[in-house]
Amino acid sequence: xxxxxxxxxxxxxxxxxxxxxxxxxxxxxxxxxxxxxxxxxxxxxxxxxxxxxxxxxxxxxxxxxxxxxxxxxxxxxxxxxxxxxxxxxxxxxxxxxxxxxxxxxxxxxxxxxxxxxxxxxxxxxxxxxxxxxxxxxxxxxxxxxxxxxxxxxxxxxxxxxxxxxxxxxxxxxxxxxxxxxxxxxxxxxxxxxxxxxxxxxxxxxxxxxxxxxxxxxxxxxxxxxxxxxxxxxxxxxxxxxxxxxxxxxxxxxxxxxxxxxxxxxxxxxxxxxxxxxxxxxxxxxxxxxxxxxxxxxxxxxxxxxxxxxxxxxxxxxxxxxxxxxxxxxxxxxxxxxxxxxxxxxxxxxxxxxxxxxxxxxxxxxxxxxxxxxxxxxxxxxxxxxxxxxxxxxxxxxxxxxxxxxxxxxxxxxxxxxxxxxxxxxxxxxxxxxxxxxxxxxxxxxxxxxxxxxxxxxxxxxxxxxxxxxxxxxxxxxxxxxxxxxxxxxxxxxxxxxxxxxxxx
Length: 504
Prior knowledge:
CATH class of the domain at 356-503: Mainly Beta
Oligomer: single chain
């Protein structure tokens, strides 16, 4: 035995697992890896009281432990994968997933699944990933399907597993057209029932592919677009990459892409508290037992605050903080808690120079006119969530027995380059304003949308030999004042696949 005199930070790791109810793990928890850059806090803060009897000696007597406040906070780089699960805890909601299936084998004609393969139909675009053979990964168009096979072209027979997810649809020739004659532009179809795509108001889509054949002839009709409403043969957009122009889509097999959506829900049946248990290993103290890791746990962790930070010319990061009911430690001999511990899902981080494709702060008008952009460029942006969580204390409980979530507060701040007085006037007018941010790289991406915000600050800053800037703060609110169906404060789209056209 050789006990270490110190343990370095590189010997630690952090993982988390979903709890079934607050403080209780499932029978076989999955401990998902996290990659923190730093810690704000992590552990339990103990409160003690002293005995202070009145006596001639004027000495205190030994006191006792009376309370414990457990919490944790980490800073993490933003990658395509590492926030998709955790963000559900901050939004108190499950992700709205499109069709996603596990593949049990691959044939020369498609992907074998256990069931529900017929949820896919001809024309669906799917992304296949996590297969050993590179030829079985990537974007595919469905040709047909049965309950146990999704047929595509270009696969190689192999006994390997992976995942297929629904990422878009390719319309039949000339079935998709743009009608820009009304207050808001619409995508019109004759044959395809658009309600089968599973899109909701406030969700973003990407119109067009990478080939001329699957892209509208007029470039203004391709790119980012936010869905306002969907009926069987008409999809209305209220925010678009450019001002759309009527186009009959002649001879075009237009493609539309969409992603995995999560938002704070307004329907009580869809609002869910998602407690988490955090595990931090603290190294193996005995060199003779290198796998006997010491560890500590934050029990009954509830997501409290989240901050997305987009600085100028830097990487994009987030701060996550949790309040917990209890804190536990385990020695190396006791070992870590049971469960599976998958490897880190490798992913490139997003940077603010080349991976942010669009940031738009726009004034929204009551007559459904196109939103008016308020600036062209920004130097920094941050968006924060605060669930205002509080601990529930009780006699006979060290720590907390539960947590109570408060108001769902979302705020944003940014510094813009001043060009016109429209943004300053929007602050004074208490105007309805909306913000959307889109990040993309490696044919995937993340979109964030605040349908309705109230601007604050707005005092122009002028310094010698510098461009004029405009600091702005924003309080987000439910978008119901714009449209009854925009009944959320924050909506996020995780795109499993975006065409290369979205990378520029």
